[in-house]
UniProtKB/TrEMBL annotation:
SUPFAM superfamilies: Phosphoenolpyruvate/pyruvate domain. This is 2-methylisocitrate lyase-like PEP mutase family enzyme. It comes from the Bacteria. Pfam families: PEP_mutase (PF13714). Gene3D superfamilies: Phosphoenolpyruvate-binding domains. Keywords: Lyase. PANTHER family: CARBOXYPHOSPHONOENOLPYRUVATE PHOSPHONOMUTASE-LIKE PROTEIN (AFU_ORTHOLOGUE AFUA_5G07230), PHOSPHOENOLPYRUVATE CARBOXYLASE. It comes from Rhizobium mongolense USDA 1844. CDD domains: ICL_PEPM (cd00377). One of its GO terms (molecular function) is lyase activity.
Amino acid sequence: MNQAEKAKAFGALHQKGNPVVLYNIWDAGTGKAVSDAGAKALATGSWSVAAAQGYADGEKIPLEALVATVRSITAANDLPLSVDFEGAYSTEKAGAAANAAMLIDAGAVGINFEDQVVGGSGLHPIDQQAARIRAIREMAEAKGIPFFINARTDLFLKFSDPDRHVPLVDEAIERAAAYAEAGASGFFAPGLSNQDLIRRVCEAVTLPVNIMMRQGVPDVRTLAKLGVGRVSYGPGPYRAMMEKLKEAAEAVFAAAGQA
């Protein structure tokens, strides 16, 4: 498949009630491992990609390094790749579109694009975030790529207590509607874990809803019954792998009498 066909195929994997499962990767090697395990598509996690190269999350990894990582993944793997692009490295719509174009040129077929102010506080106003989404959509259309823009809201991540999520749902639904109108392909609500609230969002939002697996989140089969269209794992795979690596290294050093 060419890139446009991969993008179309990736979009088709998102079905409400039959979610595509993305076990997040951070480089070409992990991409191959996850592909060999039976993945239908690949997706990076920003935290993981940054940590793997010694950077903190929050657009601390240089854009050029991120693009190089994307290029290496797509060169080594034929599966569609979505990139966690945080805030697109620009608060301006023109800059966001130009930066997203670099990912398309590197072979990506989609992005996560969040509405929090990276490096600041709070969220971008709805109209401003919608304008950035619209600019990215127009750029992708000009390139002939049905780019999957997974519009992420950070409303729920701002409050770790699930009990505080109830009054946030209306704004989340409002943001989803505005993002959809601007050209978003999916709606990502990381941090949301309550089953009733997940069902409410899925029923109200026209876009396929992405839920991130973490402690307290229902299993994939339950999420499917709630209407979720995409399930991802964020930094979980990286953290688990690094813990296993550390344990293995400690065992080696202990056996060698170096612990």
